[in-house]
Amino acid sequence: MRTACGSDFPVEDPDPFAGIRSAVLRTWPGGLPGGWMPEQRMTIDEALHCFTSGAAYAEGAESERGRIAEGYIADAAILTVDPLAGVEHLDRSALTTTLVEGEVAWRR
After folding, report:
1. What is the pLDDT of residues 10-62, one digit of tens each?
2. Buried b (16+ CB within 10 A) or exposed e, 52-78
């Protein structure tokens, strides 16, 4: 089964970092203690996959987006934190650079 996540649904924050945190923690600022439906938590690996290659698959672009690999379109974010170390500090303040098609589109 393939799962795609995104940040464009009209009932959630468009910040993808908030979506990743919510997928892993199943809660949000001011949310339920222990999370909402905690049995549906994703691991950080699952959430990152869902927001990258899963999202590319959902748009039919899995052969050119969603991974850092030779021949793929280089859309990427450079962070000050390692998201695999935990999502506690994963937010917009961790973002230092955004690449769109291999070019720097934004830099802090």
Report:
1. 666 778 888 898 899 888 778 888 888 889 999 999 999 999 999 999 999 99
2. bbbbbbbeeebeebbeeeeebeebeee
Into how many domains does the chain fold?
Answer: 1
Residue ranges with strand state E in the chain:
76-79, 95-100, 103-107
What's the predicted TM-score (pTM) here? 0.85
Q: CA 104 to CA 84: how far, in whole Å?
A: 24
Residue 10, domain member (yes or no): no
Domain boundaries, position 66:
16-107
For tokens 């934004």, name the residue.
Answer: 106
Instruction: Compute the distance between CA of residue 30 and CA of residue 99 in angstroms, rounded to an integer.
Output: 32
Question: Is residue 6 a part of any domain in this protein?
Answer: no
- Reported as a single tens digit per residue, the pLDDT across 52-94 is 999 999 999 999 999 999 999 989 999 999 989 888 888 888 8
Question: What is the spatial distance between Cα 62 and Cα 81, in angstroms, rounded to a whole number?
Answer: 26
